[in-house]
Every structure is written in C-alpha cells, then in structure tokens.
Write a structure and sequence with these properties.
406 residues, 56% helix, 18 helices, single chain, alpha+beta, three-stranded antiparallel beta sheet
C-alpha cells in the first residue's frame, strides 16, 4: 500500500473525510475507490458512497478476499446509515467470518456491531442484547468502544433503565474523546440529550406532568397500578397484562384510570371506546360486554365495578392509579418516532422497523405529509421520507420494544 493510501486511511480513521479526498480524489484504483466511498459516506452522500464501494469491490482481484470483505462491511454500514434495512445479512455474515479467519478482529467486530444496530432499529431488543453479550470490546479501538457503549445505552433506554444508560453514555463520551473524532462525540452528546428531555406524561388524579426517563423508571417500579399507554399494557408490581391486541379494552381502562378515583359515565366510555356520537341501547349492551371482558382481564390486579352513572376502577390492594402516556398524542406517533432521528427512511424500512405492512406505512406517511409533518424526496423505490427531530421530547417510549416481563 503506497503512502497516499495510508495517509488517506489515517485521515478517515480520524474523521477527516476532506483530508482523505485530497489524497485519493483523482485515483481510480481499487483501494482509492474504497477510501473515496468511505469519505463520501462520512460527508453524507450515501448514494455516491455506495456506488464507489461497489466499484472498489469489483476492482479487487479474486485473491484479495480481505479487501472485498471490508468493502462488504463498509457497504452494510452505508446502508444502515441511509436506513436501507434490507441489505443482505448473509453477505455481511460471510464478510465477518472471512475477517475473523484472517485475524482482522476490528473490522469483524464492526460487522457484528452493524448487525446489532440493525436489530435495535427494528425493535428486536432481546436479539441485539444477546449478540452484544458475546462481544469482547475491551481490546477494541476507542471508536468501536464508543459504538459499543452507545448500543448499551440504546438498549437500556428501551428497557427504561436510566442508570445503565447514563453510565454507558459516560463511558461512550470518554472513548469518543480518546478517539478524537468530533462526529462520534457529537453522536454521544445527542444520545445524552434524550435522558434530559421528557419521555412520557404522567396523568394522575386529573393532573398531567411530563416525565424524564429516570422518572418513568421510578413510576414503573412503584406500587401504583400503571396503565401504560406507551405500550398498551397494565402494570401492577411484577404483574403485566397486555392489551396491545385489544384496543377497545385499553381505551376503556385508560378512561377509568384517568378519572380514578371517580367513576366514568357510560356515555363518555361509549364515545371514547366506540367513537359513537350518540349512544343507543346497542352501544350500552356492547359496553356491558366489553366491561365484562375487561373485568376478566384485570381480575388479579383490579376490580371493574358498575356505578349508578357508569363504571369505576378499584385496584387490588388499595393504591394509586396512574396513566403513563406518550409525550405527544399522535395517531402515527410510531412513524414519527423512527423519523425523528433526522435520517431519511424508505417506506419499506419503516414497515420493517414497525413490524407492519408497507401499505399501512404509506397511508400513514401520506396523512402526515398532508399535515406538513414529514416530507419526501426521490421517486419510486428511491423515495425517502424524513422530518427534523421533534423538539422537546424523547422518542424512546414510542419505539416498538418490550419491557422486561412483557
């Protein structure tokens, strides 16, 4: 490898893409193409970066397996950064195995981290945590140690474990300073801000107040009966009752919890659960049926009692009842939560991340676009959607990840 290639590689490792381009911008040999691709990725031109990396991979000879494996890892990293979540996982696995066999532990670890970050983006927190536990990051360079701690913090935030998240971000900041890469340290600072912005709202006895992530953790650990509107579950100590697939029942229990210790009139419950403007006898009959189902679901943690004018919630044993609501009530909050990272997403990647159909996501995006909340660019399969980060609240609890015990 000549001196210009070496100098360009060192500039990229230090987070200086312009310095790297000054050395290899006019060269078309395979190593230069690969370095140009990485530089363009660091500058944010992912389309050009992907084309350059693929060209470099084709230019390397059949015996240069290490170089082609590194190109595969770089292409996967570009795809992840551009939120193209459908990149071939088998190709990345094959590249990681090749790198491990040839003793390139750093790039092999990078390949594994990319896989973990993808799992985290699509809400597979358990799988991401399992893979992370098998990585030995102690001997890794500072940049990879920072990436490791950022993943640890991301998992902890989705688990609503603020103590672990803060400790991981502190270690990530230390590693980023040691790596001397400004963009990496900026990423750590952005992640740290999430812990200092409201992550949810607490509704109790008619009052509403915002909660930071550590306050959410305190509420979940309390003895209160928590109606969690972020994940559509009812929590009582270690007991968790999921109503994610029963939206009518959840709307009823939330209405009862918001009014607690008072009861809720039947007309109000019918309006909220069934969206009926005028209640008739059929609605009242349906309400009695749904209340019976809710009573059966909550029998171990609360009683649902009929009153003269409606229904009331009585926790077992007697204690507070609170509602943990999203910081912003939005029909398509989960879509906005993914777009809030400021990156451009395709509708197929959003569908994969949310675990729903692409057509459902497209309808949501069209509705949000009409309201000016998202914008798109490109056409056909190249169409991407994005929005500036939503100010003033954290998106952690909007993402599709289960809590311990769910």
């Amino acid at each position: 490898m000549d001196s210009m290639i070496t100098a360009a590689a060192r500039a990229l490792a230090a987070g200086d893409p312009l310095g790297a381009l000054k050395r290899v911008a006019l060269r078309d040999d395979a190593p230069a193409l690969a370095l140009r691709g990485i530089a363009m990725a660091q500058l944010g031109d992912f389309v050009k970066a992907k084309a350059l990396i693929r060209s470099a991979s084709r230019s390397f000879g059949p015996k240069e397996t290490m170089a082609r494996a590194r190109c595969a890892v770089a292409e996967a990293e570009i795809a992840l950064a551009s939120r193209d979540l459908h990149w071939p996982q088998k190709a990345l696995d094959a590249a990681r195995v090749t790198l491990e066999e040839h003793g390139d532990a750093t790039n092999a670890a990078l390949a594994r981290y990319l896989e973990i970050r993808r799992l985290l983006l699509i809400g597979r927190v358990d799988a991401a945590e399992d893979l992370l536990a098998h990585l030995n990051f102690g001997s890794m360079p500072p940049a990879l140690r920072a990436a490791h701690e950022l993943i640890v913090a991301g998992i902890a935030m989705r688990r609503v474990d603020s103590t672990t998240a803060r400790a991981a971000l502190t270690r990530a900041g230390r590693a980023a300073r040691e790596a001397r890469i400004p963009a990496l340290y900026s990423e750590v600072e952005n992640a740290s801000r999430v812990l200092n912005t409201p992550a949810a709202r607490l509704i109790a006895r008619g009052e509403v107040r915002p909660l930071l992530l550590d306050e959410v953790e305190t509420v979940l650990a309390s003895n209160a009966l928590v109606v969690d509107a972020c994940r559509h579950v009812v929590r009582s100590g270690k007991s968790t009752t999921s109503l994610a697939t029963r939206p009518v029942l959840f709307m009823l229990v939330r209405a009862l919890a918001e009014a607690w210790p008072e009861d809720v009139p039947r007309g109000t419950l019918i309006t909220r659960a069934f969206r009926a403007k005028v209640a008739d006898e059929s609605h009242r009959a349906r309400l009695r049926v749904e209340m019976g189902r809710l009573r059966s679901k909550l029998r171990t943690v609360a009683n649902v009692s009929a009153t003269e004018r409606g229904f009331s919630l009585e926790p077992k044993p007697a204690r507070d009842v609170v509602v943990l609501a999203r910081p912003v009530e939005e029909e398509y909050a989960s879509v906005l939560a993914l777009l809030a990272d400021g990156e451009s997403w395709s509708s197929s990647a959003l569908a994969l991340g949310l675990g729903t159909s692409q057509r459902t996501v497209q309808r949501a995006l069209d509705s949000l676009a009409e309201g000016g909340k998202v914008q798109s660019f490109g056409r056909g399969r190249a169409r991407r959607w994005m929005t500036p980060p939503v100010p003033g609240f954290a998106t952690t609890l909007l993402l599709p990840a289960p809590l311990p015990g769910d």
